[in-house]
Amino acid sequence: MDFAHDARTEELRERLEAFMTERVLPAEPVAREQRAAAADRWEPVPVLTELQREARARGLWNLFLPDERYGAGLTNLQYAPLAEITGRSPQLAPAALNCGAPDTGNMELLAEFGSPEQHERWLKPLLEGTIRSAFAMTEPAVASSDARNIETRIERDGDEYVVNGLKWYISGAMNPRCEVFIVMGKTDPEGDPRRRQSMILVPRDTPGLTVRRAMTVLGFDDDWHGGHAEVSLENVRVPAENLIGEEGGGFAIAQARLGPGRIHHCMRLIGMAERAIELMCRRALGRTAFGRPLADQGVVRTWIADARVAVEQLRLLVLKTAWLMDTVGNRGAHTEIQAIKIAVPRTVTEIVDRAIQVHGAGGLGQDFPLAELYASARSLRLADGPDEVHQRSLARRELARHAD
Amino acid sequence: MDFAHDARTEELRERLEAFMTERVLPAEPVAREQRAAAADRWEPVPVLTELQREARARGLWNLFLPDERYGAGLTNLQYAPLAEITGRSPQLAPAALNCGAPDTGNMELLAEFGSPEQHERWLKPLLEGTIRSAFAMTEPAVASSDARNIETRIERDGDEYVVNGLKWYISGAMNPRCEVFIVMGKTDPEGDPRRRQSMILVPRDTPGLTVRRAMTVLGFDDDWHGGHAEVSLENVRVPAENLIGEEGGGFAIAQARLGPGRIHHCMRLIGMAERAIELMCRRALGRTAFGRPLADQGVVRTWIADARVAVEQLRLLVLKTAWLMDTVGNRGAHTEIQAIKIAVPRTVTEIVDRAIQVHGAGGLGQDFPLAELYASARSLRLADGPDEVHQRSLARRELARHAD
Amino acid sequence: MDFAHDARTEELRERLEAFMTERVLPAEPVAREQRAAAADRWEPVPVLTELQREARARGLWNLFLPDERYGAGLTNLQYAPLAEITGRSPQLAPAALNCGAPDTGNMELLAEFGSPEQHERWLKPLLEGTIRSAFAMTEPAVASSDARNIETRIERDGDEYVVNGLKWYISGAMNPRCEVFIVMGKTDPEGDPRRRQSMILVPRDTPGLTVRRAMTVLGFDDDWHGGHAEVSLENVRVPAENLIGEEGGGFAIAQARLGPGRIHHCMRLIGMAERAIELMCRRALGRTAFGRPLADQGVVRTWIADARVAVEQLRLLVLKTAWLMDTVGNRGAHTEIQAIKIAVPRTVTEIVDRAIQVHGAGGLGQDFPLAELYASARSLRLADGPDEVHQRSLARRELARHAD
Amino acid sequence: MDFAHDARTEELRERLEAFMTERVLPAEPVAREQRAAAADRWEPVPVLTELQREARARGLWNLFLPDERYGAGLTNLQYAPLAEITGRSPQLAPAALNCGAPDTGNMELLAEFGSPEQHERWLKPLLEGTIRSAFAMTEPAVASSDARNIETRIERDGDEYVVNGLKWYISGAMNPRCEVFIVMGKTDPEGDPRRRQSMILVPRDTPGLTVRRAMTVLGFDDDWHGGHAEVSLENVRVPAENLIGEEGGGFAIAQARLGPGRIHHCMRLIGMAERAIELMCRRALGRTAFGRPLADQGVVRTWIADARVAVEQLRLLVLKTAWLMDTVGNRGAHTEIQAIKIAVPRTVTEIVDRAIQVHGAGGLGQDFPLAELYASARSLRLADGPDEVHQRSLARRELARHAD
């Protein structure tokens, strides 16, 4: 369980830090202006395209992908400090490195479970960053954290599958460059609960697929990342070879996808917390009330100390989880993945909330990144299963350890 | 300290409940559609105008104003249960009754401190609801909760005052019908700290006053209420008679205004909490996960119980504060006003947050009112002074009680 | 819902305040020394006997009992501010006024449900303070908050009942003057779940009843109040007329007893919180660290403010509950009784904990009353049903309100 | 930063686990009985002496001491998992291994700063376990977390020093085998604030040293560990060679002592948390209320999950701190030592509190180790400086990182 950076990680870390300082952070206000002036705000901003070109040139592309055929071949432990750094500028940095959700998870999924044709048709352009993708699992009508509840139907009809269902909070789908949806649905509604689901690729332009509207998150629509769409599928027909893996394999693929997806979110959340702490400290040092800088006032100090102490713990738990995933596999790290899923979004949400409080009214507004960080962190207490589902499951395993 | 509703309150309460059920709640989706379709989203939606007409017809107009010359002449204790009810639909109900912030505070201020000419020119159209107003105190550059920090200058020049300064989070100012600003600034920057400030009326169309941009609150811009604007004042000249009260009286007027403003917010917050509890319960009853309704799952029950227990306490403290304001005056109720300012926004924020959690991803989105309730409640932990300023002040008085 | 003190309450309150200041608080160190020097520490200390005599002389005796035949005939609302005052010195004041648990509940129970012979034999000496009593409900082997779990058997055998069972945390039973136990057990284990239990009077000297040992609470044994005993009953025979009320009436009597018992605890807890706040403030004012009094340090101020704001709310909720019990009866006030049972012990525990923290190591020791206050408050999160049982039940009723 | 157990640690860990299972845990009830039956309860119980003999025979003696001349020569990282295991039985295991506070800190201090004569006279018998020692720093009259406040005087007078002062919460001092006190006091009250203090060895039988009374901690007197005494020093004369190190070196020695002392407490606290989690789970599995085991009830699951997630984080932070102490020294690990001092006692206190709640009334009593665990954990939020002092200091360093 050695968390020290090896030489490769350290070299990449330094390169990434330089990229952040020289290019990404200065691009933040530029991006904001471009966003405000954009004809179609769902399109990626031009400065992002520049950053992507530059990231590629600097060898900072597709770092997330452990599959050496296609990506950097980093372990989770190597990737963790890098993903954390991108979290400090969550609107730009992950996308600049082609390391943003949900594409990363989709690319991993295709690399592992996709057919050679699917690799050629979808994975490669995703790796090039020329197209984007979405993962369509959550449904408005059911508690989707329990995959057995999924109601979307995928029915075989000759050489095709017919898909019917309603999905929402489909991240990235508002981006017009999002050209393909990986849709989770039931192929065998009466079968073994863990063999009922399948996953299938649905191109955006397939008749019957409609991107209906953008869902918001605490007032934000995350146009940076292609938003979160409500998507209906009405008698959508795709060729049978669009199925990913085998029929009934959807649950297993989802499980395989979720582990890395969750830890990537947690890595970035730690970077978000670091950004919030930095802003909180700068504000506390620079702002005077009642004759003394906020930094001299006890309660702000308590918040800063607690934030630092919490982040140190979260980071170590994420690193341990990454190390476990690397050594015993995602299944072996199941408890730890749940542990970080429980702890990191919740704690980072609290840290950002306190940073907001130190900033006064402005903390909730658009002149600081805190409100948007808050919305992101808060939404991750619900995405990929609410806290309570993971607590319940983790407790069951803890209880089992103590049952005689 | 009798909190029972008297006959008049009870009669008004029933009338208001009927109005809510018959008109306001059904208008919510209508208003949302009108908002989405509006050419200028800062304009009030048409359905609001209808509601206002109806409220007037039903005798539910200007209930907030204790001054019998102009308003309903209700005591704070009588008004409390009515304001609470409007909080259940905070986008529409307060405005429908001409009882929304910041106009209520401005009308009270003018009724108490304004000259007869100011009554005629500004107060009357405000009472009619034909114009709206803003209260310009907060500044981006200083901790405005300490009024001594205000940097805007109001300088006498012959028969005029010249105003220079930058304000932000000026609620209501994006509404084009907002025709007048009550601006707080310093007339005597070197004088006694509590006699340095004055308040002055600045019509919107005065040269030099620029409404620069809309500030957001957690991604919302509160277009319902005319938003929150950044407003610059550059060599703005107004006649000397636009001063409210006397030179140096600004601090005292602000103090007088803040008490009622704060308690009105708290009354409505309790209604917002009731709405959140109702939504949380309905969702818990209607949603099944892992084979059982959420309502049968322990942690949701804990949240519901704690929310109910908290709201009962908050309401009683607000009622006691209202009763004190009625009997010993706003100054005599100073500690209690601070107590509710500390307790109510914080607790209601937590209650709404848990209601969101019960709703899953949708809880953060636009299909439920929870995200917007959250933003409102959260912002009130900062508006009119952050929690920490009030804690500090209340503690000082508590400590003084125990100093020998 | 008028919470103002009426003339009688105000008169008693002033009389009681004088008694506290002149006699009770000065007796605290005396009692501590007498306790340390006592041959049998379970015996009441001599100074308590003096205080009782004095309380009687001052007309401050049996204030708790609403039954005018025997007690002061105060309503709950009248008694609340008086009980609160006694909470400031919880080791001495309630006992000094013959208003301490569990005797108060037992006296109420006997007054309401006891036969004339039981009144003569047990109630009158209890009212005189010449004997003490215990209430034997909780059992070590089962979750006793669910009365259906009670396993003690009470079986009819001719003119007698035979009692078998094991009870623990039987408060007051270590006091040798505790001469009678009210024992809850099952007379009809197969009957309707709410008609299975009965209550019966068992004199201490009955063969088969053994006071086995003193249970501790966070290291304290509450010798002040006769401790908390483990009591076994092995073939204990008592005359049939010792049954209280009718066979099968135990559950109903328990319910009737618990409401007043719970609110009395809550009233006193508020006084305990006031004592903790006073100590916290005095310490904060008198102690210097890092060059400034603790009172000037932000986090202590936050604690003081939050404590004051919380206590104001708790007191109002207790008063409302008292008023409801007086007007609609204990059953009608069921939700509110649960609400205070949930809120008051938990919040007061936190307040005392923070007062301890302000005192440093000494806060946990015997030189301040805080550690003992902490243990008392903490134990009331478990006594009469743990928080979670009440949350569960209160939530069920809240949910029912929102079920269509 | 490799946290994996090396071969030696793993071997010791297994040996220690066997010792715990075979000897220590079975000795717990024996010790309790011996304690209850003891003539002098401050004397160590006989079973402890047996355990010590056995621990020595098994090669589990003085594991704490990194100094290879005298101890096991383990690094902090090697010692951490072993100390954690002893924390599961905190009354017996640390003492059985001669690894209990405050002797460990005193032995380290003497090994590092003591003269050869002091090694011979005091360190060796301490290492043998034939005598015990105390560390006398805290004073009742001042905030002792700020060492500058210490008021005890140590004055040179010819070949002797004269010590005057009053100390309290001097752990271990009630044990009659505690033969020596390391006393902190001021030799140069007007000097540089960090050079004013010195430390000196005062044998228990020195005239003028009086062990006045046992201080309690939440009702416990920790007789297991020799309690916590109030100790007065009145004109106590000791030879000048009893000074440890040089005059004015007391502050630096205290700093050196505190780091290892704090981390040892934290290591054991994690074992205490593990014990609490185990008890909580067993209780939840074995106890039924309202027709279902507590383990099936949501809120208990939440507590179990949160406890597990918290403990994993705490352990990693302790291991990182240990690793830093081993690699960059105690001074280099200053921030991390403060971080664990802030996080571990507070979090473990909460975990134990919830385990108590799951146990009902019994959780606070003597039949489970939880109440005593609670008192230990709670007291460590105050011992060696209250949380707030460490938060303040850690925040100052965090703020400094962000000051431009």
Keyphrases for this structure?
homotetramer, 404 residues, alpha+beta, Butyryl-Coa Dehydrogenase, subunit A, domain 1, Butyryl-CoA Dehydrogenase, subunit A, domain 2, Butyryl-CoA Dehydrogenase, subunit A, domain 3, four-stranded mixed sheet, four-stranded antiparallel sheet, 11 helices, 51% helix, globular, acyl-CoA dehydrogenase activity (chains A, B, C, D)
Detailed description of the structure:
The structure is a homotetramer of 404-residue chains. Chain A has 404 residues and is of the alpha+beta class. Chain A folds into three domains: 7-114, Butyryl-Coa Dehydrogenase, subunit A, domain 1; 132-244, Butyryl-CoA Dehydrogenase, subunit A, domain 2; 251-402, Butyryl-CoA Dehydrogenase, subunit A, domain 3 (Up-down Bundle). The first copy, chain A, is built from eleven helices and ten strands. In chain A, α5 runs antiparallel to α6 (116-128) and α9 (334-359) packs antiparallel against α10. The longest helix of chain A is centred in the middle third of the chain and has 37 residues, at 250-286. In chain A, 62% of the residues are buried. Chains in contact: A-B, A-C, A-D, B-C, B-D, C-D. The B-D interface holds B 297-302 and D 297-302.
